[in-house]
Design brief:
The chain has 10 helices and no strands. The chain has 224 residues and is mostly helical. It starts with a helix and ends with a helix.
């Protein structure tokens, strides 16, 4: 089984278990565990961000990418689309923030890129399978807090990681050390923003920040 399919299935499985457990786990326990997940997310984001070596391009990519994402209203459009999708279900009107947080958390970072490329190029799924287990646990916790909208992030995982895996032979440039460090620099800041959202310390539209990842890749190709 390819890593992107395995990852998607574990996100769904974690979400189903989170829905079942969410009704039984006391709110105080859920809040405590969710705060722990927020702190771990901050740690992961900080660790990634510190890998960024070219600070100025990272700053410009984040600034210009966020401006572009805000102008295109990426997060608002994504939220609207998911709300329409949720409306088709009797138990609709789930919190779309769960989908946005989960999708970004599961698909941004070097583990996603390197793991998917290794899976596609050499059929080595070790790294992506490790990430899949982590995502399954995270989906469980996120679903217990946010609800069923987290399960839809499995589609995002399938599309993003599946695309990287299937087109791996054309994307090896992403694994260059300088490219990866800059992607981690930008991705780490986005993951830090997710951690702050989870802890309710600062609410940021992280989907609007995603164009920054494309800009930092363009920069890496330009400077070689």
């Amino acid at each position: 089984m390819k890593g992107y399919l395995f990852n998607s299935l574990l996100v769904v499985a974690g979400s189903v278990l989170g829905l079942l457990a969410g009704k039984k786990v006391p709110d105080g326990v859920k809040d405590a565990v969710f705060n722990a997940l927020g702190l771990v997310t901050l740690y992961v984001g900080l660790k990634m961000a510190l890998n960024g070596t070219d600070v100025i391009p990272v700053v410009f990519s984040l600034a210009l990418g966020t401006i572009a994402g805000s102008a295109l209203r990426l997060e608002d459009r994504t939220s609207g689309a998911l709300q329409r999708l949720n409306g088709a279900y009797p138990a609709g009107k789930h919190d779309t923030e769960g989908f946005l947080v989960a999708s970004t958390l599961f698909c941004v970072g070097s583990m996603t890129i390197i793991g998917s490329l290794k899976d596609g190029l050499s059929n080595d799924g070790t790294l992506i399978q490790t990430k899949s287990v982590m995502d399954g646990f995270a989906a469980f916790l996120l679903t217990a807090h946010y609800g069923a909208s987290v399960a839809f992030s499995a589609v995002t995982v399938f599309v993003v990681q599946g695309g990287l895996t299937l087109f791996a032979k054309h994307l090896t440039f992403l694994t260059a050390p300088r490219m990866m460090s800059n992607i981690d620099g930008v991705g780490g800041i986005i993951v830090l923003a997710i951690g702050l959202n989870l802890l309710k310390l600062k609410q940021t539209k992280t989907i609007d920040m995603l164009p920054a990842l494309g800009l930092i890749v363009v920069y890496g190709l330009w400077v070689g």
